[in-house]
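Listing 4. Sequential folding, example run.
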Amino acid sequence: MMRINSFILTIAVFAFSFKGNGQEDHIVNQAKFLQKSNASFFGMNQLNRVGVLYNSLKINEATSMDNKYAFGAISFQDKNFTIGVDVNSFSLDEIGLSSSLASLNYIYKIQLTNYTYFLPAVTIGLGSSRINVENLIFEDQLNTNTGFISSESIDPLAPIIGGVNYYDLGASFIIHNEFYMIGLSLKHLNKPNISYNKEAPVVKPISIGLQGAYEFNINPYERSLLPRYSYLFTYLNIKKYGESIYFALGEEFQLGPFSVGLTQQGGSVSSFSINNIGITTGLAFENFDFGLHYNFQNQKPGSVFSPSIFEFSIIFDFSIYRRNNRGLNKKLQIDNYY
């Protein structure tokens, strides 16, 4: 019975991953990891940074899915370009499901005006997905008369669903200054085949994303009620994935070294719905940026399934000048371009 339930759970997870949610990586706090929606953010302000993230998606009371993400960016300021790399993987140990995508990104910097910059980027990724077939039960293994389960299957699908590898190509750009940002991202340009059965291909459709952000100074007169450097960062990402449309919205107050905010995600698959709402907190300490996020569970039978998500992240900035920010932790900056 456990293996039967595991097989059903596998199907449910795939439906959630590729149809119900439309998110390939399940990172929900996109305001701290802007490069996940648009690779050009690796070149933002030409900072040298590394970061890691872990989150856990609670499928039900007994099962959760672990997601791990790591990235690094190094800028060559004299040459006006940045190289960014990232690896995202998730696993569901109970059924032996694992999937990962490693990407290499090239971002070039073009100065449009004294304070406005254009960052085009290209991306090449290598993805893989694996299922432990021993954890699955096929129909011919079940004996309904005795209740026993055979250890072997002659189902022709059994020997060919172990794993799949694929290439993934993308392109993007952003235009930004210290106050606003707009961006466009194109993913899966080569429509990679992600099917375990190559005789029945399943391709990722091209994903088109539009991003926008604006950062407000909410303490321009340096009132004592708030820290000297206090900002409100608002962010919107709209994505068309196949026939569906998804959005992610975030509002984050940066109060000196502390931050607190809200996130909302939703979309239109068969009908429009708000999938989840979350709360995020953060602390910047010298070159480190720590973050915590929690997404509240939302389940509407026949409409939405969104598990609760706990997320933790650390980002480290190698810039020798970051310690001198003295509380200025804006997300949209251009000081390092000069």
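-- end of first protein; second protein begins --
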Amino acid sequence: MTDFRLRREEILDGDRLKAMLEESPARAAQAILIAAREGVLDAQALLGQILLDGQGIEQDQPLALRWFEIAANGGHPMARNMLGRCHEHGWGCVANASAAARDYRQAAEAGLDWGLYNYANLLATGRGVVEDQAQALACYRRAAELGHAKSMNLLGRYLEEGRFCVADPLAAMDWYRRSAQGGDFRGQFSYAAVLADQGQIEAALTWLREALSGGNLKFLRVAGSALSSARDPQIQALATDYQLRLAELEKEA
């Protein structure tokens, strides 16, 4: 019994599990399934994720929802957040923004950065909850302070525009920088825009290329259009690269 417990814990180590999923997804899925049935919360949450993604196991959104629910009810914050994602997007259930808001709020109250971010998104747009920009800003700030790169970018936007707070361009730039360095493509684009306004064109181009490499379809559509009207010709020329990458992703979709 002791030996099995040690092996199970070793399998569930984050780095080891990631490597295992990459090398042998089916083998990893079996290990996760065994541990989930043994009541290991991390394994239950992971099982929900691989069922949602179809990684190493047949995709099954309703079953993913069930495992997220089991782990969430056991006190797993990320599983609660993922349950919210299922309710928001209708993965394995009928979409329900109010249910999503409830789950995100609980994950946020547990101090999970992703829960704070997702709950803030609903508060900012009034989906499933009454719109509350001040509370959304507070959630983004808490998530940003926890190191959440996407929230850093959005906090920077509030500070740059002075929306529901005192405008603070220097603080906004710092949050954009931290978001960019944290790998968020929108943060990279925001930081590049500030650098370009300051005349730091080479640095701006570097971050725009980073954003290009990681950007999704929705981002590339908007960003490519914005670049086409940039004042600096070097930046404007990048619009073509954005459009080419957009076309590649549209073919893959």
